[in-house]
Design goal:
Length: about 100
Amino acid sequence: FKEDNMVAIKHLFPRGYEYGTDDTQGIYTRGDVLDQLAFVLKKYLAVPSRTLGHYAYGGTGGGTEDGTRLRLCQHFFCREDINPSNNTFNTNPSL
């Protein structure tokens, strides 16, 4: 789960990100830095309304009541058992 989210975040926030680059250094103008910061900020502010993988942030009604709750997008799974007494999910991740 953690690795999948890191890959999603690496592709969501940095504009022009390429995995496996040769770690070259670059010099950026002030405008380039401000453009990149604006791009990242727009993406960050859109996170509550986006789905990262099979999970989404926000309340069960589609809103962001508390803004930090992680929701499981259940329609991606063949079978799931939800036990409300101890808040556990037992899923079959086959599509």
